[in-house]
Amino acid sequence: MTTLLWGVLPYVTFALLVAGLIWRHRHDGFGLAARSSPVRGSKLLNIASPAFHYGILFVLVGHLVGLFVPESWTDALGVDAHTYHLFSLYGGTAAGVVTVAGILLLVHRRRTDAPVLRATTANDKVMYAVLLAAIVMGVAAKLSHASGDGYRYRDSLAPWSRSLFTLRPDTELIAGVPVLYQVHTVLGMALVALVPYTRLAHMFSAPVRYLFRPYVVYRSREPRQWGQRPQRRSPERLGG
User: Fold this and answer.
1) CA–CA gap between residue 135 and residue 131 (Å, rounded)
2) S-S: 55 plus which of 6, 19, 99, 231, CB 3.0-4.6 Å?
3) What percent of the chain has pLDDT above 70?
4) Taking a C-beta distance cutoff of 8 angstroms, is the pair 37, 199 a contact?
5) Binding site for heme b: residue ranges?
6) pTM for this predicted structure
């Protein structure tokens, strides 16, 4: 079981991720990755969507730093183990709580708005369930080891994560990992495998090029002389 969970499952997860992204790109170019639901309940959406997206972004960055930035690097920056633990505890917990709040508001919107509910698919429900479980389990694991320097996952889960890239996973490092952290890790792998097959795939189609596009110049079709101000159309001419 140890070999299956920590030596085989990560590569199965990666294979499902890559295969799913290729399929999704060839199938629709990620165009349907975040199927738009009717723009209703905008006030609730204006709160839920930023809470979820900003929260999950901080959660993702925190995991990348914690798992793939060696402790020697943060030590060189003058961040000792206790300081790092406090940043991780308070920052990670806050990001997790904000993300969970955003998810719950989004789920509430889907459950209470009939057109949005009709646009909700089975894989949306699975995605929300796995995502919510993974984040809640992560917050619970962090809070269960809040005292002192906390659980030093940078001595176990972090080197195990990096060993996966050498194709020689060090599964023995997981032997002493608390159960909550193990469950959180398994749920995290399940979530990664689900990404291409759910609306979470839109993270790979974010409009990054929009930030670097040239300006769009709009010109009036009505000819006018130099220095002449364009006439404002009356409501009657606009059909109003």
Assistant:
1) 6
2) 99
3) 79
4) no
5) 53, 63, 184, 202
6) 0.78
